[in-house]
């Protein structure tokens, strides 16, 4: 038997402001993953702020899996000679 993945939905509109990962299905059947902070969820559209500062827009009805993920830890500063 092969591995069977299960899609789960954990994220709701009440999670705005939290960091999440969303898996949405594209029109051609492929999937796209987006990780970032939920900025808004209005009229069936979810806005996610990515780590690089860009804003991704996802139609809520295309989301097949989602979950809340831990906040990204701050980047470590490297000091010369360490």
List keywords for this structure.
82 residues, SH3 type barrels, globular, Histone acetyltransferase Rv0428c-like SH3 domain-containing protein
Tell me about this structure.
- This protein has 82 residues and is mainly β.
- It has a domain at 13-68: SH3 type barrels.
- It contains no helices and five strands.
- A hairpin with a 5-residue loop joins strand 3 (45-49) and strand 4 (55-59).
Q: What's the CATH first level of the domain at 13-68?
A: Mainly Beta
Task: Tell me the helix content.
Answer: under 10%
What's the N-to-C terminus distance?
49 Å
Count the E strands. Answer: 5
CATH-derived topology of the domain at 13-68: SH3 type barrels
**Mean pLDDT, rounded to whole units?**
88
Number of helices: 0
Which consecutive residue ranges, at least 5 long each, have pLDDT under 50?
none
**How many strands, which pairing sense, and closed or not: the largest β-sheet?**
5 strands, antiparallel
The CATH architecture term of the domain at 13-68 is Roll
Radius of gyration, CA atoms, in whole angstroms: 16 Å
The spatial strand order of the largest sheet comes to 4-3-2-1-5
* Global outline: globular
Give me the strand/helix succession: EEEEE
- β-strand percent reads 35-45%
Class based on secondary structure composition and strand pairing: mainly beta
